[in-house]
Amino acid sequence: MAAVRVFPLKCVVQHYAWGKVGWDSEVAKLISCNDSSVVIDEEKPYAELWMGAHPKGDALICDNRISQKTLGEWISKHPDSLGSKVKDIFQGQLPFLFKVLSVNISLSIQAHPNKALAAKLHAQFPDRYPDKNHKPEMAIALTPFEALCGFRPVEEIIGYLKNVPEFHAVIGNEAAEILENSPGDPRQVSDALKKCFTRMMNCEKKTFVDQLNMLVKRVLEEGAAGKDAAESNGELLLRLHSQFPGDVGCFVIYFLNVVKLKPGEAIFLGANEPHAYLYGDCIECMACSDNTVRAGLTPKFIDVHTLCEMLNYTPAPASEKIFPFVRDPCDPCVFMYNPPVPDFSVIKIEVPSSMEEYTISSTDSASILLVIRGEAIATADPSQINVCRGSVLFVAANEIVDLCVNSVDGMLLFRACCMQ
Questions:
Q1: CA distance 416 to 214
Q2: What is the phi-psi region of residue 205: left when phi exceeds 0, alpha when psi lies from -120 to 50, beta otherwise?
Q3: CA–CA–CA angle 148, 245, 266 (5° rounding)
Q4: C-alpha angle with apex 168: 311 to 233, nearest 5 degrees?
Q5: Diameter of the chain by CA atoms?
Q6: Is 60 exceeded by the pLDDT of residue 1?
Q7: DSSP 80
Q8: What is the pLDDT of residue 132?
Q9: Whole-angstrom distance, CA of residue 167 vs CA of residue 152
Q10: Gap between the Cα atoms of 223 and 115, Å rounded
Q11: What would the pLDDT profile of 312-364 be if each residue is shown by its tens digit?
């Protein structure tokens, strides 16, 4: 009998406090659809579904023909399953972690270091930065999804400095004036942005708490009087302040773009890109790392100095943060999200209701396949696997999977792999 190289996985759920609770969570809905034994706790957050071989969340193999219990163990016994290039480049390790996120409360203001900085931070502070790898990541919206991402155009930041005196106060006159006089020279703009952002993040606590309380009071009063809060981004300010009262991170909304993704739209977060997920459900794929530098909207360890020194201070409009997909010219069902890193790519597969059979093509990379919508019988010799919403399959390199579609609504799947 042929070796089993395509098999279902039971994946790890992370119950972080920021996750959507109970049945509001897409993570909860996915795991319950795929496993009737799962009982969803309606008072518990279901924040992340980890699909991969990360040591903190190694997926369980659901095939009794396979002796290894976890995906990581199986890959270590079958490194050729990664694909020839992937195995060599990434030293026999699955280089990506695939996730579903259900965000209810803002995640921390953060950025991820490049490889050089990651190695340095890991050597200096291994308890805070647990590995030496970089952590580029991509988020693809499943539902309307909000995030802070990258520095706004300078003109927008200057507008907030003029319209939000409390924001101006935590920046200070000197730094604000330098920024106001900087437009035109990209280097001066970046230096001025760094000076302003660093001043704010290092503002004396009493000052920023007092100014934040004054701002919240003013926005509430203006709202009660029927005044539009857009000039001070009031709705988002009040939401973040209710989640993290007295946190300097509330002022970051005046520096960073608010990006609103429709389902299927994506953002790519390269090294040193400041960001924070705000609300919604998404697919996420990242290099297999845990390195995150935080500086606000979090009870976790913050490292203001490292964050301020490492950030990319290049301003750009929110529209430029949306990462484009490319439709496969050979397969109209396939939409490819290929970021500028070797660690991962994500492929969206939309099988229309008119199509009863569909073949997921082979690639010289291990893949993880997630079913978001639809049902099918998946065939990959010697296996036949019933898949439905929430099913997760590992597909070894160079394997073809044939789908016999049983759904009147077609199918929606996402596939993570390495497009070397």
A1: 46
A2: alpha
A3: 15
A4: 80
A5: 75
A6: no
A7: G
A8: 79
A9: 15
A10: 46
A11: 999 999 999 999 999 999 999 999 999 999 899 999 999 999 999 999 999 99
The count of C-alpha atoms lying within 13 angstroms of the C-alpha of 359, restricted to the half-sphere facing its C-beta, is 8
Beta strand segments in 320-366, E: 322-323, 326-327, 334-337, 345-351, 357-360
Q: How far is CA 59 from CA 11, 12, 62, 368, in A?
A: 5, 6, 9, 11
**Sequence-distant (≥ 6) Cβ neighbours of residue 384 within 8 angstroms:** 377, 378
Helix (H, G, I), strand (E, B) or coil at 350: strand
Encoded tokens for 310: 């490492």
**What is the C-alpha to C-alpha distance for residues 231 and 250, in angstroms, rounded to an integer?**
15
- Predicted structure pTM score: 0.95
Question: For residue 320, which of 274, 276, 266 has the smallest C-alpha distance?
Answer: 266
- CB-side neighbour CA atoms (13 Å) of 39: 1
> What mean pLDDT do residues 264-277 have?
96
* Distance from C-alpha of 29 to C-alpha of 33, rounded to nearest angstrom: 6
CB 94 within 8 A of CB 52: yes
Calculate the alpha carbon distances from 78 to 4, 50, 96 in Å: 11, 21, 17
> Structure tokens of 332?
């109209």
Helix intervals (H) in 135-249: 154-163, 165-171, 173-180, 186-201, 205-224, 234-243
Contacts of 325 (CB under 8 A, 6+ apart): 264, 266, 335, 336, 337, 348
Reported confidence tier of residue 277, pLDDT bands at 50, 70, 90: very high
Window from 114-118, 244-248, 264-268 with minimum mean pLDDT: 114-118
Pairing label, strands 256-261, 145-151:
antiparallel
Of 392, 112, 96, nearest to 272 by C-alpha is 112
The token pair at 359 is: 């073949």
When comparing pLDDT for 27 and 300, which is higher?
A: 27
- CA-CA distances (angstroms) from residue 292 to 31, 141, 310, 335, 396? 27, 21, 12, 29, 30
Q: Is the pLDDT of residue 230 over 90?
A: no
Q: Could you tell me whether strands 60-61 and 383-387 are parallel, antiparallel, or unpaired per DSSP bridges?
A: unpaired
- Cβ distance 369 to 392 under 8 Å? yes
Min mean pLDDT across 54-68, 117-131, 222-236 is at 117-131
Residues annotated as catalytic are 294
Among residues 376, 371, 316, the alpha carbon closest in space to that of 151 is found at 316
